[in-house]
Amino acid sequence: MYLQHARGLLAHPRLGWLTIKNEHTSLTQLCCKRLSILAAIPAISLFFGLTLTGWSLSGKEFHLFSVDKAFLLSFGFYCSMIIGALSMAYFIFWLEKTYDAKVDFEHCVNFITYTALPMYLAGVVALVPIVWLVVLVILTAVIYSLYLLYVGIPVFMSIPEGRGFMFSTSIIMAGLCTLVSWIALSAVLFSGTIMS
What we know:
Elements lengths: L1 H10 L1 H9 L5 H27 L13 H29 L9 H11 L1 H6 L8 H27 L3 H35 L1
Helix pairs in contact: 1-2, 2-7, 3-4, 3-5, 4-5, 4-8, 7-8
């Protein structure tokens, strides 16, 4: 079912959001079936990329990781994506009262999971962890996720476009704070793994 939603969102975002909005799923189902599977795509790709290809800054010299180190990094990356998504969902749930939206936490988790869908799918690039390539692909995915956010908020939250724009901008500000925290945590984890 969520693959159909994913196709709909990528092909026709407005219609895709309407379909997703009308779906009612439990929090357990959202976390176990959607968020956990989608977050596993970049984490598993990173694990295989680090152990089979190795990471590289330029694409010329590759540094392989041991299975233990790659697993630690991938697992930490996976956990941080889940925690980041749930934190953003809670922020949207907390903020929705300000913008007169009437959604529950489950809908917020569903919304943030599908908003981040391009980034999860783009995580496949970690199979070839060349830093400049990963940054380029993820940046493209982030831009499309921002587009989905701006299109989706008014539809999903049933609020006017102007209010949706302000709501989306607030979410982006919170997302940037979450991203900075995630980058700092990743840098500490990555440098700690390399040094050991």
